[in-house]
Amino acid sequence: MHYFIGNLGHIFMILAFVSSLIASIGFFLESRSPKDKWNRFNTIQFYIHSVSILGVLVALFVIINKHYFEYHYAWNYSSKYLPIYYQISSFWNGQEGSFLLWMFWNVILGLVLLHTNKSWKAPVMTVMSVTQLFLTSMVLGIVLFDVKIGSSPFLLLRDVISDAIFKVNPDFVPEDGRGLNPLLQNYWMVIHPPTLFLGFASTVVPFAFCISGVVTGKYKEWIRPALPWAQFSAAILGVGILMGAYWAYETLNFGGYWNWDPVENAIYVPWLTLVAGMHTMIAYKKSENALKASVILIVVTFILILYSTFLTRSGVLGETSVHSFTDLGLSGQLLIYLFVFTLVAFFFIAKSWKKMPSTEEEASMYSREFWIFMGATVLGLMAFHVIAITSFPVYNDVAGLFGFDLNLAPPTDPVESYSKVQIWLAIALAGLSGTGQFFWWKKMDGKQLWKEMQGPVIISMILAIVVFLVTGVDKISYLMLLSFSIYSIVSNAKILWSLRKSSLKLTGGSITHIGVAMMLIGILFSSGYSKIISQNYTGRIWNKELPEDINLNNLLIFLNEPRQMGPYTLTYKGILKKTADGEFLNALDVIPTQHPLKYQVIGTMDTVLIENPENSYFEVLYQKNNGDEFTLYPRIQKNEQFGMMSSPGITRTLKADLYTHITLAPDNLEEREWSETKEVSVPMGETFFVNDYVARFVKMERLTDAAEFDLGPEDVAVKAIIEVEGETKTYIAEPIYLIRNRMAGKIPFLINDLASQLTIQSINPEKNSFTFGIQTTQKDWIILEAVEKPLINLLWTGTLLLVIGFAVAVYRRYDEFAKMRDKKME
Amino acid sequence: MKKTHIFGLVVIAIAVAVIATTAGDASSFVSFNEAQKIASSSDSNKIHVVGTLKKNASGEVVGVQKSPDNLSFKFVMIDENNFEQEVFHPKPIPTDFVRSEQVVVVGGYQDGSFIAEKILLKCPSKYQEDQLNV
Known about the structure:
The structure holds 2 protein chains of 2 kinds.
Chain A: H1 3-32, H2 36-65, H3 72-77, H4 84-91, H5 95-116, H6 121-138, E1 142-144, E2 147-149, H7 157-160, H8 165-168, H9 187-202, H10 204-216, H11 223-252, H12 262-284, H13 289-313, H14 331-352, H15 368-390, H16 392-401, E3 408-409, H17 414-436, H18 446-471, H19 476-499, H20 508-528, E4 531-532, H21 548-553, E5 555-558, E6 563-565, E7 568-578, E8 584-586, E9 590-592, E10 598-601, E11 607-609, E12 615-624, E13 629-632, E14 635-639, E15 643-647, E16 649-652, E17 656-664, E18 678-683, E19 687-690, E20 693-702, H22 706-709, E21 716-725, E22 730-733, E23 736-740, E24 743-747, E25 749-751, E26 756-764, E27 769-776, E28 781-790, H23 792-822
Antiparallel strand pairs in A: 1-2, 4-28, 5-28, 6-7, 7-8, 7-12, 9-10, 10-11, 12-13, 12-14, 14-15, 16-17, 17-28, 18-27, 19-20, 20-21, 21-22, 21-23, 23-24, 25-26, 26-27
Chain B: H1 3-23, E1 27-30, H2 32-41, E2 47-53, E3 65-66, E4 73-79, E5 84-89, E6 102-110, E7 113-122
C-alpha cells in the first residue's frame, strides 16, 4: 500500500485551499490600501498556492502512472497497459481530475496576470483567488460538521467501494484497474479537454477585470485590459467547442458534428454571450451606452460557465443527455457557488449602476455602435433560445420543489427543433457582420454607406445566384443563409483588401468574420444537403428486424463480392486489427497470447502489440469506373459500457467528404453455425458444386513431410487439391486426410470468402474417387451506410480563419493595453 | 416613446416568438397510457417514457428477448403508474442495460406496439457500486 503519495497529495490540496483563502483576503486588503508589504506577502501566497496545485497534479499523476490501484481514481479510470498519453487522459476522465485541470489553468492565468498588471493587480487577483478558493473546495474531500466538502481524488478504493474482500483483507490491491473507456482512447481525449478547460478558465479573467472596475469605481478603465483577454477566451472556447464537434464527427459517429445535446449547449451559450460582450466592449470606445451592456454580458458569461458546470456535473441532466457526468453528491456545493457569484456580482453592479457613465443620446443607424448592438442582440437571442430549452430539467426540478409535476422533456428531434430558429438568427448575424464592418473605418451617411455596399452586394448576389443554380438550394431559409454568408465574405474581403498595406494589425475583425461566414456555408451544405449514397436499389430488405430506414438507406455487402454503389464499386475485404505501429493485419491471422495486448501472428513466432484489440476495422475498397480507387477503414468497437460503437471511415475531397460507417456486422465470426455435412463422391478431374460454386477435383498428392504431421513408418497422409470458381477469383482448397496409428484423421480446409469448408471424408481406391464433405455457413457480411457531406471542409477552414483572426485581434488589443500601462495610464 | 424602447419591445417579441416556436417541439415525460392517447390523437407521436425494467421476486430482470441474430431486442418496462408495456428496440442490447436502475425510452406507438428509437439508461453511480468483479 502506498499511503504516502496520497497523503502528500491531500496535504497539498489542503495547502492549496488555505493559501487561496489567505491570498483572497490578502489581495482584497491590498486593493483597499496598496502597500509594498502586502504586495510581497500576497505574491508569495499565490506562489505557494501555485506550487501546491502543481503538487496535487503530480501526486495524482504518479498514482495513475505507477498503477497504484489501491486508489479509487487509478482503479476506476486507468489500467496497467494504458500508454502514457492515455494515462494523461485518465487524469481528467473523472470529475475531480477535470476540476484540477481547470484549477491548473486558473493558476497559470493568475501568474500571467500577476506579472502583467500593476494597478489592476490587487483587485483582479482577489477575484482570481476567490475563484480558486471555490474550485479547490470542490476537490478538498474533508468532512466538517457532517457536511462533505468536495470530493478528493485521493480516496482509497476500500473507502469508496464496500466489497466483502476488504473485510477479509483490508490491504487488498486489485491486479488491474477498470481502464479508460476505449471510446475515449483517442488523441482528441488528450487535447480536447485541456483546450476546453483553458477556455472555461479564461472566462474568469474579463469577469475579474469587470468586477474590479465596478467595485473600485473604474467603470470605464477595465475595458482596455479586459478586451484582449475576452478575445483570447472567446478564441480558445470556440476552438474547444469545434474540437469537440470534430471529434464527434470523426470518431464518435454521433451522426454529425453537432447534436444540440445539453452538454454541447451548455458550453455554446456562454461562448455566444462572451462574443457578444467582446463586441460591445469594442463599441464602448465610441459610445458609453455599450458600457453597461458589456458589464452585463461579461458577468453573465462567467455565471453561465458556472451554470453549465452545474448542469453537466450535478446529475440534473441525467434523463436528457447521453454524456453528462455522474453525480458526485456535490450539486449543493455547486449551487451555492452559482448563487454566491450571481448575487455578489449583481449586488455590486446594482450598487454602481447609476454611477456608470451613459449617454441619453441614441445611436444613429449610421454609427457602428448601432450595428454592433444589433449583432450583440442577435447573439444574445441565440443564447437565450438555447439555454431556455436546455434548462427544461431544471424547470422540472424547481417546479418539483413547489410541488408541481412539470414533466417537460426536451424536443425528441433536437437538431430540427433548435436549427429552425438558430438559422434565422444566423442569417441576421451574417448580414450584420457583413455591413457592420463598413462603419469601422469612417463616418458614414446613407449615401456613402450605399457606395461602400454596392460592390459587395452586387458581387455576392451574382455569386449566390451561381451557387444556387449549381447546387439547387431549395429552401428559402437556406438560400438566405447562403446569400448573406457570401455577402459577409465579399464585404469583409473588400475591407481586408483595403487594409492589406496600411494596417495588418487591424484585420482581425474581417478575417474572423470571413471565417464565421465560411463556417455557416459549410454547416449549411454539410448538414442541409448531406446525401445518402448507399441507397438500397435491390428491392430486397436486408433484415425484417431492422427499421425501415436502415433497410432503405444501407447496403449489405458480402466478403469479396463487389457491389455497385452510386459511382463506386465497393468490395469488402475483411476485418483488420491495427497494431501499435499503425499497421493493419487481418484479424484471422493473429491469435491472443498470455499478454492481453500482444498477439501472435499465425504461422510465425512474431508477436505484435495491439493497443485496442476491441477495435475491428472493416477494409472496404472503393473503385471508380475511371480507375481511381481508395480504401476506407470504418471501425466497430466492442465497448463494454456502450455496446457496439461505430466510427466512420472518411475520404476527403475539396467538394465533399465521403463518410462511411458500418451499421451492422456479424457479432462474432467464431461462433457462426455450420450446416450439416453434405457428402459427394467425386472421381479425380471431375467437377462438382460447393455452396453453388463450380469446383473441380484436380488431383491428390501424397504428403511426405513426416515431421509436420508426426507420421510413423506405417502412416499415410494425402492432400486433395480442389479448384473452386468464386465470383471474382479461383480458390484452391487443400483438405488433408491422414492415417496415423491406424486411426483416420481429417483436416478440413476453410474458404472464408465462399463460406465453405471442405473435408476428405473417405478415399475409395476401387472407384478412384474421393468422398468430400461440404459444409456451408452464412457468408461474412457488413451493412454499411455511406453519406456524402458536401463542403464540410469549409467549416474546418473557417474555424482556422476564425482562430487566426482572433489571434490578430488579441495581439492588437494587448499591445494597446501594454503601451498604456507602460505610460502609467492603465 | 423612444427608439430604444421600441427596440426593446421588438427584442422581447422575438424572444417570445423564438420560445413559442420551439416550445411546441417540447416533448414530455408521460406514462404509456398517455402515450397511447397521444399516438391516436396526433401525428407526432414521439414522447419520453420513464420507467424501470420488470424484475422477478429475486431482483433479476425478466422479459428481455433478443432476436435470433442479436440485432434487436424486446423488453418489458414498467412505467410510473405500474403499467407494463413490451418495448421493441431495433438495435443490439446496450451492455449495462440490465444493471440500469432507470430507463428512459424515446419513441412512440406504431400499430399498437411501442418502438423505442432511443434508450437512455441511468446506471447506478460509481459510489453505489460495491462489486469489484475480481
